Amino acid sequence: MRIGVFICWCGSNIKNMVDVEKVAEEVKSMPRVVYSQDVQYLCSEVGQADISKAIDEHNLDRVVIGACSPRMHETTFQKLLEGKGLNPYYVEIANIREQCSWVHSDKEKATEKALELVKKAVAKSYYSIPLSSDLLEVNKKALVVGGGIAGIQAALDIADAGYPVDLVEREPSIGGRMAQFDKTFPTLDCSACILTPKMVEAATHENINLYTYSEIEDVSGYVGNFKVKIKQKAKSVKADKCNGCGDCIEKCPKKVANEFDEGSSKRKAIYTLFPQAVPNKPVIDRDNCIYFEKGKCGVCQKICPTGAIDYEEQDEIIESEYGAIIAATGFDVKKPNDLAEYHYGNHPDVITSLDLERMLNASGPTEGKVVRPSTGNTPKKIVFIQCVGSRDRNKGNPYCSKVCCLYTAKHTLLLNEKFPGTESYVFNIDVRTAGKGYEEFYERARQKGANYLRGQVSKVEPLEDEDNRLLVRGYDSSLGEQVEIEADLVVLATSIEPKADSGDMAKLLGISSNEDGFFSEAHPKLKPVETQSQGIYLAGVCQGPKDIPETVSQASGASAKAITLFNKGQVESVPTTAVVNKDICSGCMQCKPVCPYEAISQEYVVEKVAGKQVKRPVASINRALCQGCGACAGLCRSGAMDLGGFTSRQLMAEVDIL
Ligand code: SF4
Ligand code: SF4
Q1: Which of these, 145, 163, 412, 601, has the minimum number of CB atoms within 10 Å of its CB?
Q2: Residue-wise pLDDT tens digits, 185-220
Q3: Cα–ligand 2 centroid distance for 266 (angstroms)
Q4: How close is the Cα of 165 to the center of ligand 1, in Å?
Q5: Whose CA is nearest to atom 5 of ligand 2?
Q6: 4Fe-4S ferredoxin-type domain: which residues (predicted)?
Q7: Which of 522, 627, 518 is nearest to 572 (CA)?
Q8: Judgement on whether residues 349 and 466 belong to the same structural domain of the protein
Q9: What is the pLDDT of residues 365-379, one digit of tens each?
Q10: Which of 203, 123, 223, 117 is nearest to 522 (CA)?
Q11: What average pLDDT does range 292-299 have in this prediction?
Q12: What would the pLDDT profile of 435-465 be if each residue is shown by its tens digit?
């Protein structure tokens, strides 16, 4: 065995805190290390050429790298070794950047630690064994979870590339949040005018199958071969018979709060989500239907001219297989009931920006008129409050919700245009306008008369005058004084949050979330649409706050990843899988339930005992399913389970060298 060691400076990232020359020099005394060198940038072309040259000149058959995280460049070095005719798993990486130079401030101690990390990697490489992947066939069908603009765009891109897509949406219609909006910034395009054609295109595309009023129940399998159970909730209306006349909706006697209008209007128990819904056929909301509550009514069935109402319809579980999954599950908007200082929920004229958006929408509860909910009159003075529940560690979410500055500017412009004479005041911490044309849009809002006050609002309180107006108390830092504004309407730009059940969805998909609950990408810069689970991609606000252009771009990025996977047709399995030593496996099967990927099953080996053939149970690993998490190896009491690339022998060698 001839080991070469390469210590990276990573520019000043490692070099400033670790004496890289010393580490490279000292490691030379280790057995089987025949070459050692420090290099300025190992991942660069020059750095890789240095490794390549050393392999040739010193006949190296193992390589140890002291550099950044293997998550960053492991495949770079593995490919280099493969190119030199060596097994790619003959490279070991000591992370002396994230785990050493970045987290320590004493150069001497950091150098000592770096040396220990490199020594451990050298000791591990004494026992490295060649590993190989299997090629797995890819099922060329995609699942998109969530039918908002992100899901629709992703589904259309994949379908246009010629691959079949199932688009699953829990509401009775696709469209998502964008369907609730009136206009979009910075162009003031009508939201429905852009969205509706896309919805129709998705619904009529020959490669797209829509599952509305449906949810994901179970996901198993692995990249290229996911098995998914979809629950299609009973709609109680036969789509093939219904002609969408809407007679049933008109006659239904039961009214409930309309969630699409944020509760500011009523809908019937049999309903379509909004006028341009796709599919445009009603569903019965069984939780609120008199027939399902009391066994009486049945008006819709009696009135339906086509006999489409079917109270007996059952939920259906659809099982299907996919090669790739795109999560586009969207977001919730915080209801600021817990922020008592704003009086939301206590005064009808304190509303959220989404409430205002619905009012501005011609198909909304007020048919496009902006009114004070308390009186129904047009408000004259409107106060907008930004960052409600955003950028606030103590009383809300620490992150910026990213779109509130621009949609508030949009609201002031629309008000100015539709209701000349209204006065708009915008309290803000600062205005963030990163995006093409956004700064100009904000400037336009100001030129058209929106009054921006830099400062926070301390309190909104009812004036208790005869008009039941509101007094907004705040601070204007540019004047350096407290200000009070009497308002007819107060609009709160509230925080964007992950879906309430996003944690459950993350568990189902086997992906991780950040501390705020948004799904985590595999790498924020290099893999922004991938997740740590191969074959599962992210699109839209489920990954973090973003505007519509960014959402659509990310959806196209996610679909491009799925299309690339389908075009390849095969995927390499993880080679660092579990391995059973059947000679010492006791067949206790304790490992089976701990495997999160259900990769372990029982099989039998036939042995001769005292001249007789006996069958003995042992564990068996499905290499296609195993993701190399190591849970089984950590648990096995017989020491029969090992992990390729991380065998017990290798781990013990790392410990022993210290
Ligand atoms: S009355 Fe019948 S056909 Fe008309 S929308 Fe209702 S279910 Fe469909
Ligand atoms: S059964 Fe009655 S309450 Fe239920 S959806 Fe039909 S009309 Fe409405």
Answers
A1: 601
A2: 999 999 999 999 999 999 999 999 999 999 999 998
A3: 15
A4: 28
A5: 270
A6: 233-263, 280-314, 576-605, 617-646
A7: 627
A8: yes
A9: 999 999 999 999 999
A10: 223
A11: 94
A12: 999 999 999 999 999 999 999 999 999 998 8
Residue 265 CA to chain centroid, in angstroms?
32
Task: For residue 307, give the ligand nearest its CA.
Answer: 1
User: What distance in angstroms lies between residue 246's CA and the mean position of ligand 2's atoms?
Assistant: 13
Atom from ligand 2 closest to the CA of residue 292 = 4
Could you read off the pLDDT of 102-152 as tens digits, one per residue? 999 999 999 999 999 999 999 999 999 999 988 999 999 999 999 999 999
Decide whether any atom of ligand 1 lies within 6 Å of the 458 Cβ: no
d(C-alpha 539, C-alpha 149), whole Å: 10
Q: Is 409 in the pocket of ligand 1 (CB under 6 A)?
A: no
Ligand 2 within 6 A of CB of 300: yes
Residues 298 and 345 in one domain: no
Q: Structural domain tally of the chain?
A: 5
Is-contact 628 607, C-beta < 8 A? no
3-state secondary structure of 213: coil
Q: Is the CB of 152 under 6 A from ligand 2?
A: no
Clarify whether residues 227 and 174 are in a common domain: yes
Distance CA 61, CA 280 (A): 65
Under 8 Å CB-to-CB from 32, ≥6 apart: which residues?
Answer: 1, 2, 3, 62, 122, 126
Q: Which of 549, 570, 591 is the last residue of a domain?
A: 570
What is the domain range of residue 352?
332-497
Cβ of 310 below 6 Å from ligand 1:
no
Q: What are the angstrom distances between the C-alpha of 275 and each of 108, 174, 233, 237, 361?
A: 70, 12, 21, 17, 12
Same domain flag for 562 and 594: no
Q: Is 445 in the pocket of ligand 2 (CB under 6 A)?
A: no
**CA 393 vs CA 151, 516, 584: distances in Å:** 31, 11, 54
**CA 311 to ligand 1 center in whole angstroms:** 13
Do 559 and 440 belong to one domain? Answer: no
Please state which of the ranges 163-177, 285-299, 322-336, 596-610 shows the lowest mean pLDDT: 596-610
Instruction: Supply the CATH number for residue 601's domain.
Output: 3.30.70.20
DSSP state of 101: I
Structure tokens belonging to residue 332 = 């919730």
- 309 belongs to a structural domain: no
DSSP 309: B
Closest ligand to the CA of 256:
2
pTM of the model: 0.86
The answer, yes or no, to whether residue 255 has pLDDT greater than 90, is yes
246 CA from centroid of ligand 1 (Å): 5
Going from the Cα of 167 to the center of ligand 1, the distance in angstroms, rounded, reads 24
Question: Among 237, 249, 252, 302, which residue has the most ligand 2 atoms within 8 Å of its CB, making it the best to mutate?
Answer: 252
